[in-house]
Amino acid sequence: MANKYQENDTKNRFIGQASIIYKVLPNLTLRGTVSQDQYSYNYSNVLPTGTLYVPNGQYTGLKADAAETNTQVTGTWKTHIGENLHINVLGGANGRKFQNNYLKLDGQTFTIPYFYSFSNLATSSAVPTNQHTTTNSVFGGVDFDYKSLLFLSVTGREDWFSTLSKGHYGIFYPSVGASFILSDAVQLPAIFNLAKIRASWAEVGGGAPDPYVINLGYSVVPSSGQPLQNVTPDVNNNNNSITNAQLRPYTSTTYEAGFELSMLKQRLGIDFTYYNRETRSDIFPAAVSTTSGYSSAIVNLADKPNLRNRGVELLLTGTPVKVGDFAWTVSYNVAYNTNKVLSLLPGFNTVQVANSVGNWAYLNNVVGQSAFELVGTSMQKNANGDTVFNAASGLPVMSAQHNLGRSVAPWTMGLTNEFHYKRFGFSFLLDGKFGNKIFSIFEVYATRMGKLKSTLPGRENGLTVHGVDQSGNKYTNTIPVANLRPYYDNYKVYSDLFLHDGSFVKLRQVIFSYSIPTAKLGLSKLQSASISFVARNLLILYRDTKNFDPEQSFTNSNSQGFESIGLPRTRSFGLNLSVKF
């Protein structure tokens, strides 16, 4: 029976770009570019005839076609004022079109046993979804270069989003940035090859992430008589959401400052950045009572800063060894980011972002706290740390909901080592994240089913528990073997039992390379060629999560912090051939 399960998927992808450049005047250049990224995807999953839980079989399939096309026209004009001031002016327009068309196929009961085809199902449904979005943009910028010492860049951009209503779909956002080459302006000690300082301020904007969230859509619902219509659910989570024709674009404002140093004949480098980013009028699915027939309402948050991200980034580069044909270079980057919820909807201090299966844990945004905080319960303890039991039920008392920790790691790092000897190269990358928490839904189910080692105590002679009752008196009880399963099953309501530190360090990538001596091949137009062996996701060097990969995720959205019986990252091996003409 196990060999009759089927799961197949095929993906074909095409990425292409074409450009044309026309020099109108010596200082004026026009460029036109068209690029496209498209793919087709076919997936099928078959539960065969004869399984205990689906005796007559089940079929699930997906046929998808997606394409993103960008058409862009730009003009560049270069000039100068005197000998010292150079000016570069850029202007242009861009049109982005995205189409995602897919057909979801579901059905049960194969009419002819063991013939696994969608056409062989007694009951089936085919639900098409068509998502089309367009973003039109105009943009421009001016760059100033004074003596190759002081650089100033000013830009502006206007976007119009098809996912928003007329009158609300346009937004303008500017930016300004400057840098100064200090090492060329003043005499620095000889160890410095480059000293550069920089600062910038920028706004960016965005529309609704999905089409058709400004007006309700309706779908035909099969019935025994006249077909009915119902509100079309969200294609991402199959929930009904209240749409909002008054949605506005959101904006994100960032300012940053930093410096770059190169020293010891470029053997040592330091790049430091401090940034502050605030988002306002963010578009958010606010939870509503399901008795309304909906699970959420699409709204803009308050028209003031909603979320702040603030942090630092540091990049250290060095060449510890460089002797003859051998060189060893090191690059280490570390970043720290702290976020804070500044405001939500008027009159609200807490918004639920997501919940786990069974509502055993939540992700909440709370004003004044970090974004995407994990929230749940625990076994109630007294001042001495003793577990408080309900003497009537014999179960630990469940605490009120409280914060369990950050779901987003504040610390990230990466370490790359590269070794080169003549035409041979070897490099490896270590990376990691630190400081976040993960709630494991897998461990909840494994505990309820008695699959974890933590459920072994008590299987022979019963489980004796100690603590205090709700009146503060000492409490001792023995759970008989026959009642162990419901006792451990009740652990699902204590969120902190399944909470882990999500920190990890991984050997992310290893590359062996060889640079082919193109001059010996006798091909004059061949500039360079190399062949590489690449391996990714090789080892987990450190983790606190013993039963799952800390990068396993409940979803690919912002709702991180839940692990839900996902597959670990796939280890991959490949050969790359790079040729340059």
Provide the fold topology.
Blueprint: E1 6-25, E2 28-47, E3 58-81, E4 85-110, E5 121-146, E6 150-161, E7 170-181, H1 182-185, E8 192-206, E9 218-221, E10 228-231, E11 241-242, E12 250-263, E13 268-280, E14 283-287, E15 296-300, E16 305-323, E17 326-341, E18 350-355, E19 362-366, E20 373-376, E21 388-390, E22 395-396, E23 402-406, E24 411-421, E25 424-434, E26 437-440, H2 441-448, E27 463-469, E28 474-479, H3 484-489, E29 499-501, E30 504-515, E31 528-543, E32 562-563, E33 572-580
Name its key features.
581 residues, mainly beta, 17-stranded antiparallel sheet, 4-stranded antiparallel sheet, 3 helices, 3% helix, globular
Description:
The protein has 3 helices and 33 strands. The chain is mainly beta. The chain has helices at 182-185, 441-448, 484-489, and strands at 6-25, 28-47, 58-81, 85-110, 121-146, 150-161, 170-181, 192-206, 218-221, 228-231, 241-242, 250-263, 268-280, 283-287, 296-300, 305-323, 326-341, 350-355, 362-366, 373-376, 388-390, 395-396, 402-406, 411-421, 424-434, 437-440, 463-469, 474-479, 499-501, 504-515, 528-543, 562-563, 572-580. The protein starts with 5 loop residues before the first strand and ends with a strand. It has a 17-stranded antiparallel beta sheet. A 4-stranded antiparallel beta sheet has the order 18-19-20-23, with no helix packed on it. Strands 22-21-27-28 form a 4-stranded mixed beta sheet, with no helix packed on it. A hairpin with a 6-residue loop joins strand 9 and strand 10 (228-231). It has a domain at 148-302.
Amino-to-carboxy terminus distance? 54 Å
Question: What does the main sheet amount to?
Answer: 17 strands, antiparallel
Q: Number of helix segments?
A: 3
- Percentage of residues in helical conformation: under 10%
| Radius of gyration, whole Å | 30 Å
The secondary-structure class comes to mainly beta
Q: How many distinct beta strands?
A: 33
Q: Give the overall shape.
A: globular
β-sheet strand percentage: over 45%
Average pLDDT over all residues? 91
Give start-end ranges of low-pLDDT stretches: none
